Here is the input.
Amino acid sequence: SAVISQKPSRDICQRGTSLTIQCQVDSQVTMMFWYRQQPGQSLTLIATANQGSEATYESGFVIDKFPISRPNLTFSTLTVSNMSPEDSSIYLCSVDGADPHQETQYFGPGTRLLVL
Amino acid sequence: GDSVTQMEGPVTLSEEAFLTINCTYTATGYPSLFWYVQYPGEGLQLLLKATKADDKGSNKGFEATYRKETTSFHLEKGSVQVSDSAVYFCALSDPGSGYALNFGKGTSLLVTP
Here is the structure.
């Protein structure tokens, strides 16, 4: 499976500011996904990021709030914009498995964000 | 749409007890099914998976069988250890939805010595 790293691992931010989270994979992957895990909750998909195209956002998530970049097949960023305390969550990126196991996703360690 | 339902936690067991965590799903297509585990303070790790009906996934003593007739994927382990204490997530992936994972709410397991 791919080795995935995320930066930063955690951060404490002030409301109204923005934070960019980086996700780096040690091999080329087709699909990258960004999830949010609110305290004590399950994971919710924010968007799917494919290289060379706009990210596809799930209902309830918009590009202005969560802009995503996918400049190549090993890297993606998620920005949490104009943050409020409700954005305090763990943000995780994941990647699809290599063909023929594309249905399997592997997760990074997550970024723990606290907004004051 | 697709959905996953897990038994509510927390589940507390003594070491060496038998574990079952129930998971049922609804899906319009032919999903793949997964169990992920999240240890305290860590990210998600794939525990096991099954990609078609009657497949059995297994890893680290855990097992789950993809039952299409009952739309279930229950997680079992014959003898739990303290180190199994974690949150367990059942999830499905439908190729018709671009392989995005749809997670259950998670079940917290605490194993006591």
